[in-house]
Amino acid sequence: MFTAIQRIRVEWAHCDPAGIIFNPHYYIWMDGGTHAMFQAAGFDLPLMMREDRFFRGFPLVASNMAFKRPLHYRDITELTSKVEQFGNTSFVVAHAFRQGDDLNPVAIGNEVRVWGYSDQADSAVMAVRRVPEDVRSLLSVNQTVDTTVK
After folding, report:
1. How far apart (Å, rounded) are the C-alpha atoms in residues 8 and 97?
2. Domain presence at residue 149
3. Could you tell me if residue 137 is inside a domain?
4. Residues with Cβ < 8 Å from 131, sequence gap 6 or more?
5. 62: three-class secondary structure by DSSP
6. How open is the CA angle 120-124-127, to the nearest 5 degrees?
7. Is the pTM of this model over 0.70?
8. For position 114, what pLDDT does the model report?
9. Average pLDDT for the chain
10. Cα separation of 67 and 8, whole Å?
């Protein structure tokens, strides 16, 4: 599967007063990993939404995390994000956070997202549609891309 990787430095603002990561940051990073993966695969979400006024993106409908050990201030973690499974209107993005050469993840999580549409251009009411074939194809390619901001 298409895999996006990025390195993230744990900053003081990510930590509690003891210098240990405040776990909700993992969820923010997973969301960023999903969007970076789509961007790297050639899908520009803002452009897609401008070109199709009924498209509402790929909203999150469920997520979970398992924490294996904490990260600390100034640690660098590598996040890998890839689609683990496609459903009809949904897909599961698997995320793993690793540190250094250790193959055992620091934390693992996943997100369930749907392909969102509206029946009217100005409606906030959303429905879901089948994940398009071009999305399925490009995110199923065996390729790894580094999306770290440099």
Report:
1. 10
2. no
3. yes
4. 86, 87, 88, 89, 90, 91, 115
5. strand
6. 70
7. yes
8. 96
9. 93
10. 17
